Amino acid sequence: MLNKAEDKKTLIFFGILKNEFEHIKGNWFVLLLCFFISRQSIIGEIFPFAIVALCSYCYIKKPSFTVLLTTMIGILSVKLDFVYIVMLLAIYLFFYNFKNDEKKPATLISIYAACVLFFSKTSILLFEDFSLNSLLLNLFEAIFVFSSIALINEGYELVKKINLNRKKGALHRPQKTKIKQDFNGVEIAATSSTSSTSHRSILNKKVSLDLGSSPNKAPSFDSSYEKSSENEVLKVLKNKKNILNGVRSKKALNIFSDKAKKKIKEQLLWQNINLKFFEVMPEEEDKICLSFTVKSDKTSKESIEAITLIVRNLCGVRIKCTEKVVVAKNYYVLKFKSIKKVKVKTYTATATKDGSEVSGDSYAHASRSDKYYIVLCDGIGSGEEAYSESNGAVGMLSRFLYTDFTEDQILKTLNSLLLLKFDEERYVTFDLQIIDYSLKEVRLYKAGASPSYILSGGTVEKIESHSLPMGILENFEYNVFKRVVRKDDVIIMVSDGIIDSINLDSKKSLDKYLELIAHDDPQTLANSILSYALRGQSKIIDDMTVLVTKIG
Q1: Residue 494 forms beta bridges with which residues?
Q2: Is 316 helix (H, G, I), strand (E, B) or coil?
Q3: What is the DSSP string of 101-156?
Q4: pLDDT per residue as tens digits for the range 384-427
Q5: What string of DSSP letters covers 260-277?
Q6: pLDDT tens-place string over residues 361-386
Q7: What secondary structure, in 3-state letters, does 426-495 show?
Q8: Alpha carbon distance 499, 514 (integer Å)
Q9: Which of 16, 113, 210, 282 has its CA 20 to 30 A from that of 55?
Q10: C-alpha distance from residue 85 to each of 75, 108, 137 (Å)
Q11: The pLDDT value given to residue 14
Q12: What whole-number distance in Å separates Cα of residue 454 and Cα of residue 357?
């Protein structure tokens, strides 16, 4: 019996450890921010940021021992402060005791945290050198804790409510393309199914994937189709045309039509925005200009976001606010211009250093809103450790791109996080390119990175950086370059393995070689640059990466 009880306790213990590990894995970035925030000081003294971080995290996420430990370590990394440790324990126990109950109001949590801070520090003050200034400081810290927690938590609830209202507004994009593709897939598979039984199973798999069904359990449509005859297959194909005609009737509205204007006005009313005047004016190069005069209790920023989303969902037109005039309180005149999304695609060619299982170079490229991002990071050395460093930097940057941080804030925050993560001998080179559709420009941010090249109209432009890599200095500096881009421009990024290999041979010059192959297609360009770097070498001396981005 005792052995069974001990085994049960062991299982419970390992279950708790597993849950905490999964929690850390899913929220490591937020926990890292909590640690960074908790150790902040003002005028040489620890300020109660740790209490704000702990309360906000436990309220928004859940009471986790990990966040308690994180905030404690944040304080202990500055100095041994027994008072703050006790306060954090008291606040954590409050959340832990009510973890299975209904969520408490944010105001109640704020009051409790402020009272714990004020009475704890004031009690100690009474037994030490009491002074009015110290008492007022305690009161100020308590008010700060109360207001910070209340604002953070209420702000979080407000964001949740706004997102919920947007979903309830039924503002969906037209599904014409997706449905059409699905039926095209059925047509192809059905045509093949007349030839063999194996092809019919392919059709069944295709339909299962389109319906989002489990691979282990086929949906009813799947099983019925398995038993259907060839005539039933032909019947499906005959009905396809009628179905697609029904889909076409739901296509995006013409923004110049009265129906589109009426729908936009209705959708805005659902968002509590009263449309007083709306005009669409054509411009040169297939662009349009839109003018909205609205009255709303919402802020101008919220009104702009609502209009942008509604026009895009109803008419399929991407727009950006270019001018905002506040005529009177809750009365705005907003002007928008359409954004013509440029077709951008990135092609790659890579090689791993001889003797290494993984490359120390990491890269990513993605499109978000009206921008396209390409990032290339190179960890010091090669192998697993270099890969971990570069991949971690790319991963953190990818998360930041979905925040409201400016590009400068993203880079400086990323450098601060890498300083915490790396020791003095570790760093990563950083190469980021942002293609801005609306401004028709490319912005290049370089920190210790190799040169980049822009091929435009047969000319080759070389862009070099002389700044240090990321994760070395706290006062981080980087080089930034801006340039207008045009259709058919090509941007080339390479890691230092390419440059170092070419520099081994004094007869080689990447600049001159690019002039010879400037008119090749992007994938051929990437492969040619890699082959050129490896030419004349018996082994690969370093990890190599080539990224070729075509603006099309």
Answers
A1: 546
A2: coil
A3: SPPPPHHHHHHHHHHHHHHHHHHHHHHS---HHHHHHHHHHHHHHHHHHHHHHHHH
A4: 888 888 888 888 888 887 777 888 888 888 888 888 876 656 67
A5: HHHHHHHHHHHTTEEEEE
A6: 999 998 876 788 999 998 887 888 88
A7: CCEEEEEEEEECCCCEEEEEEECCCCEEEEECCEEEEECCCCCCECCCCCCCCEEEEEECCCCCEEEEEC
A8: 13
A9: 16
A10: 8, 21, 19
A11: 63
A12: 32
* Paired tokens of 521: 């297609």
In terms of Cβ atoms closer than 10 Å to its own Cβ (0-12, 13-18, 19+), residue 142 is: buried
Token code pair at residue 353: 């250093």
Looking at the chain, how many residues does it have?
552
Burial state string for 399-413 with b = 16 or more CB within 10 A and e = fewer than 16 = ebbeeeeeeeebbbb
φ and ψ at residue 64, rounded to 5 degrees: -125, 140
Residue 376 near residue 361 (C-beta atoms within 8 A): yes
**Phi and psi dihedrals of 478, rounded to 5?**
-140, 165
Q: Give the CA-trace dihedral at 140, 143, 144, 150, to 10 degrees.
A: 180
Amino acid at 79: K
Answer for the pair 367, 344: CB distance below 8 angstroms, yes or no.
yes
Cα separation of 393 and 408, whole Å? 16
Q: Give the global pTM.
A: 0.48
CB 56 within 8 Å of CB 152: yes
Assess contact for 447 and 496: CB atoms under 8 A: no
What confidence tens digit (pLDDT) does each residue in 174-216 have?
333 333 333 333 333 333 333 333 333 333 333 333 333 333 3
